[in-house]
Amino acid sequence: MAIPKHEDIRVPALRLLSENESLKLNEFELPLAQFFCLSEQDLLQEYESGNGKIFYDRVSWALSYMNMAGLVKKPKRAVYQISDAGVKQLKIPNSINAFIATQIENREPEKRSKRQGIEKVSTSLTPQEELYDSFSKIRASVYNEVIDVVLSKTPREFEKLVVMLLQHMGYGGGVKSSGEVT
């Protein structure tokens, strides 16, 4: 099964909190993995960058958004408890994601005015995943630009480019005419 997005994790995580007095962040992983029928391989899947496990990160983001919206409290670092607002919202679980979006939007009114005219970013990705996605798009764009520049060169310009590249990579060393195009 595919790893659920952080907004899909919110309601089950809130239910889990309602059944317990408080839970540490790492105590959410196994019960939620069982709820979503995730395999061991799904739990161990990491970001391409190696910056951590995807499911654990998404659980963390789900809890962070619920904390910012006031549905959970953090009495200590990495310890969560359900709030009165969380208990109330749990009675209408289909509205939790809309409630969180509204609370986050109301929490940052000065940023809202700056964002007018800017396309809203999908909330299905965590901020870290949005950064990786943006990085991949930028990298692909730069790659295409470099290929376009290289392909637009004449044979002589291309040969000069290759010689310069080899010199910058350290080839040729102290040889006097190493950068000479033949």
Short description:
With 182 residues, the protein is mainly alpha-helical. It has 9 helices and 3 strands, in the order αβαααββααααα.
Helices and strands in order:
Layout: H1 6-18, E1 23-24, H2 29-35, H3 40-44, H4 54-68, E2 72-76, E3 79-82, H5 84-90, H6 96-107, H7 109-115, H8 127-151, H9 155-168
Antiparallel strand pairs: 1-3, 2-3
Helix pairs in contact: 1-4
β-strand percent reads 5-15%
- Please state the average pLDDT score: 83
What fold name goes in the CATH topology slot of the domain at 6-121?
A: Arc Repressor Mutant, subunit A
Quick one: how many beta strands? Answer: 3
CATH architecture of the domain at 6-121: Orthogonal Bundle
Residues in helices, as a percent range:
55-70%
Overall, the morphology is elongated
Q: Segments where pLDDT lies below 50 for 5+ residues?
A: none
Order of strands in the sheet with the most strands?
1-3-2
Q: Using the CA coordinates, give the radius of gyration.
A: 25 Å
Biggest beta sheet attributes: 3 strands, antiparallel
Helix/strand class: mainly alpha
Give, in order, the helices and strands. HEHHHEEHHHHH
Distance between the termini: 58 Å
CATH class of the domain at 6-121: Mainly Alpha
- Helical run tally: 9
